[in-house]
């Protein structure tokens, strides 16, 4: 059995839809055979097969379209980020490109002092919030 040329052109034009159609057709045939073997009537088996074909063809086509879109978006993101990094590297704009961090006692002390200031600021903020809460309890 030869496949007509119009069907081959349609497959070449939209391969994702063709894959979905193939999955739907396969599902319909297997569901039809299962339904007949389980003793259902031919019209009932045809309805089951038709519903199965519609569900599976749409499911497969939608899934393939989503995967294709996500794949192309991820590839575009990777390309753009790589291009930006290459441009920054060529222009010398990458921060800390040619540096090696040397941790010393002085830097550790500065970090500890910075954390103490941040903690003190947080404590001051909490205290002022508590004071503002109490202000609403007292009527003047």
Q: Can you walk me through this structure?
A:
The chain has two domains: 12-94, no CATH class; 104-140. With 140 residues, it is mainly α. It has helices spanning 5-13, 15-37, 42-91, 105-137. It is elongated. The model has no long low-confidence stretch (mean pLDDT 79).
> Quick one: biggest sheet?
none
Structural class: mainly alpha
Percent helix range: over 70%
Tally of individual domains: 2
Low-confidence stretches: none
Computed CA radius of gyration, to the nearest angstrom: 34 Å
Number of helices: 4
Q: What fraction of residues sit in β-strands?
A: under 5%
- In whole angstroms, the N-to-C terminal distance is 97 Å
Q: What is the 3D form?
A: elongated
Order of helices and strands: HHHH
Q: Indicate the mean pLDDT.
A: 79
How many E-type strands? 0
Protein topology:
Layout: H1 5-13, H2 15-37, H3 42-91, H4 105-137
Helix pairs in contact: 1-2, 2-3
Which tags fit this structure?
mainly alpha; 140 residues
Brief summary of the model shown:
The protein has 2 domains: 12-94, no CATH class; 104-140. The protein is built from 4 helices and no strands.
């Amino acid at each position: 059995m030869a496949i007509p040329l119009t069907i081959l052109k349609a497959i070449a034009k939209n391969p994702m839809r063709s894959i979905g159609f193939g999955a739907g057709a396969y599902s319909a045939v297997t569901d039809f055979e299962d339904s007949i073997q389980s003793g259902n009537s031919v019209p009932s088996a045809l309805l089951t097969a038709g519903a199965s074909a519609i569900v599976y063809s749409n499911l497969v086509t939608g899934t393939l379209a989503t995967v294709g879109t996500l794949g192309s978006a991820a590839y575009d993101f990777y390309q753009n980020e790589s291009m930006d990094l290459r441009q920054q590297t060529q222009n010398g704009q990458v921060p800390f490109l040619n540096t090696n961090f040397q941790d010393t006692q002085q830097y550790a002390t500065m970090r500890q002092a910075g954390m103490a200031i941040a903690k003190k600021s947080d404590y001051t903020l909490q205290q002022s919030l508590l004071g503002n809460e109490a202000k609403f309890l007292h009527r003047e």
